[in-house]
Amino acid sequence: MGTAVRTEACRVEMADKQDAPTAVVVVNPDGLVSGWSDGGRLLLGWTAEDTVGRPVTDLLVDPPPPGFPGGYGAGPDSTGFTALRHRDGSTVDAVLAAHPLFGPDGRAMGHAVTVQRWGRRPVIADRAFEQCPFALGVYDPELRFLWINDSSGRVIAHSEEQVLGKKYREVLPEFDRTLFPERDDKPYTDTLSEVARTGEPARLITVFRPRGSDYANAWATSIWPVRDAQGRVRAIANWGFDMSAEYWARQRLLILNEASGGIGRTLDVIGTAQELARTPVPGFVDLVSVDLLDEVLRGEEPPSVSAFTSGEAIRLGRAAQHSAKDEAGRVAGPTTPVTHPAGSVAARCLTTGRSTVELAADPGQGGEWAFGPGLAADPAHWPPGNPVIDGSIAAAGMTGRITVPLRARGALLGVVSFSRLDRPEAFTADDLILAEELTAKAAVAIDNARRYSRERATALTLQRSLLPQGLPNQEAVEVASRYLPGGTGTEVGGDWFDVIPLSGARVALVVGDVVGHGLHASASMGRLRTAVRTLADVDLPPDELLTHMDDLVLHLASDHEPDGHFQSAGESGATCLYTVYDPVSRRFTFASAGHPLPLIISPDGTRAPVPAHPGPPLGLGGLPFEAAELELPEGSLLALYTDGLVGSHERDIDDGITELRRLLNHSATSLEALCDTVMDGMLLDSRTDDAALLLARTRALDPHHVADWDVEPDTAQVPHARKFAVDQVDAWGLEDASFVTELVVSELVTNAIRYGEPPIRLRLIRDASLICEVSDASNTAPHLRRARAFDEGGRGLLLVAQLTQGWGTRHTGNGKTIWCAQALPGHRRPVPDGS
Question: Of 575, 551, 557, whose CA–CA distance to 689 is shortest?
């Protein structure tokens, strides 16, 4: 086959030589041929004897072109295309160029006409293809080499004589596989075969290592079929040019683009470090390690740059490491301590704040193929001191390593190492720029995560300090609670809850949510919780308490506005659910300010409807709040919660409430265990908000522990009231409390008769403490005052305050109630302090 190809090549070459001549014809002013060159014989077959003296138009098949002698007379130089008669009867397409001839006196002597064959490329065209800087090649349908130019020979490291007649796969077996299998590229030889089979041209970018080079090149290639006159594919041609500089620059941009979207997605220091470690593997390097200072890992301020001095080892924590051989990588977990000895590259980078590039060997001029011509070998592109040739890194299996200090906002956070292991390409100056760009993006994200971790820890500490550290002892309900902040990457919110013992053995259950997150939300939550406790001590009904809270939030908003302008609830608002349960009457009263209503489950498991609607959120102002009241069976289960428990991006709030109802098991013996079950079942890993849950199971006070008596508005009834109280206390077996009870009943009943309005009622309640209540129809509340030496009154309430654990006043819809409580032996229940 090689001999046949060479014979065909020789025949074509001889034909080229025969077709190459140019004919010169001299035409006199009369249009007759007066001169004929030997090239005319070679081109058209006519001799000088055949043509001289004949009209030149006899040689033309078509009319002469404009300006041609014999057709339009003498004129300036002119060129045209026409068909000439060959002596054998065939037609020759030719290009004619007419040049006028003049004598010494300026008289026209005729024309000199040059004739060249048209439709056959000249020899110089062959030279142009052979010397083309692009790689050109022609192959038969079986992919045997028919012709290549010099550039193609240099790329494949073979001359034309070495490859003619051989199959492509024999000469270039490496093109039967892809250089980067992870990119799912099709082998180049397969593309050639596909063009030969389908007759459809193809364009592609091929990445390969030329023979004798350690560096990968990128070539833009076009492949097309060559057809004969009948349209059959008789050969395959291709051309390509080296676009390595552009290709690798684009790859760097793609890595930077991936880094922009892939680094800093979470506000977690270790997670961000792992994102940095993953991004450049394997497209850029084979191994990345990220070492951070311990202060950064703890969310603290990093030390100043001056703290890093030469001559000292530096201790860091390896936050992330990722290798091309270990796709799982290290995502998170306890960091591994790493010590960089004094004088090591990492220690120098932290001390100087400058990057270092280490190469296992000098790339020399071979570097012209590394990610762009000339960049590796040209020292003008490298910063001072780089690269460093260090053969010792080869012992660690590395061909190169770039070490970059992690720096953000002028502070050093750690150091990053980018290493190449199995690839022979040496790093270039552009690679150093890419490594520094990746590190800079990650440094800002890591510093943001560090700052966020510190603020979140501060806010969480503040919030936990403001939440109840333990639920108070009381006999009205059994309670259990849970609070969980938002997931990692979210700021602490303003969710809160409280259990507040009230007078008359009652208890207030409260849950709320401050709009926003962070320190501001935690501080606002603390102020609102304190306000609720203060207003609860005043014993305001739920709807009135929320009205006062609404005013407070409005004041908070104006405090935060520097010019005193009103700030909307969307920026400093809150929601709150305030409920009161009375174990004596088993009445449950509640009002909501934009907060989800409580879920109530009866002892038999039925879901009790809540005949109310949430009111407006706190902070809107001018809108009323409505209270609702229910009588609950003993043992009813109450669930108070924040919207972070039931709502999320993946779940609608209504669906969340339905799921919460399903999880609330009324027969659960332990509310603590039920809390755990609910939190585990409701909270998603991707939650972005705080969640609070308060469960309560109601109790009812034994009717025998409550005694009341109507008092006539006559001071003569005071002794009877004292006797009623003493007898009841003795009946309960509380003889030790008789003396104090007799005194406080005498004082409170006397005041009600003198200063209050009928009807007057005395009530004793035996709960965790002994409670004495006197109610009347007057809204005037008593208060403590200092009696002077000769005053006849003013000492009664002072005496009550000294003898009891606490006292206070609560207003009702038809008057007020004065109460006081005495501690009983064996009980530690805190009594509301309403003094």
Answer: 575
What is d(CA 381, CA 379) in angstroms, rounded to the nearest whole number? 5
Query: Hey, what long-range contacts does 217-222 have (CB within 8 A, 24 or more apart)?
Result: 217/242, 217/244, 217/369, 218/242, 218/243, 218/244, 218/246, 218/247, 218/248, 219/135, 219/155, 219/243, 221/188
- pLDDT for the residue numbered 759: 92
**pLDDT tens column, 312-353:** 788 899 999 998 876 544 444 467 889 898 889 999 888 888
738-773: b (≥16 Cβ within 10 Å) or e: bebbbbbbbbbbbbbbeebebebbbbbbbbbbbbbb
The b/e string for 528-553 (b: 16+ C-beta within 10 A; e otherwise) is bbebbeebbbebbbbbbbbbebbebb
- Give the DSSP H or E segment for 678: helix 671-682
For residues 446 and 16, what is the distance between their CA atoms, to the nearest angstrom? 71
Please give the Cα distance from 136 to 139 (Å, whole number): 10
Phi, psi (deg, nearest 5) at residue 139: -135, 150
Lookup result for tokens 């129809």: 777
Residues 403 and 22: their CA atoms lie apart, in Å, by 68
* Rounded-to-integer distance, Cα 614 and Cα 626, Å: 9
Measured in residues, the chain has a length of 835
The burial of 421, by beta-carbon neighbours within 10 Å (0-12 exposed, 13-18 middle, 19 or more buried), is given as middle
3-state helix, strand, coil in the chain (%, to 5): 35, 30, 35
Band of the pLDDT at 756, cuts 50, 70, 90?
confident
CA distance linking residue 542 with residue 614, whole number of Å: 13
Q: Please state whether beta strands 637-641 and 760-766 pair in parallel, antiparallel, or not at all (unpaired).
A: unpaired
Each residue of 698-742: pLDDT tens digit? 999 888 899 989 989 888 888 999 899 999 999 998 888 888 888
Q: How far apart are CA 47 and CA 51, in angstroms?
A: 7
Question: Measuring CA to CA, how many Å separate 248 from each of 262, 368, 372, 420, 644?
Answer: 20, 13, 7, 16, 48
Can you give the pLDDT at residue 831?
Answer: 46
Taking residue 488's Cβ as centre, other Cβ atoms within 10 Å add up to: 15
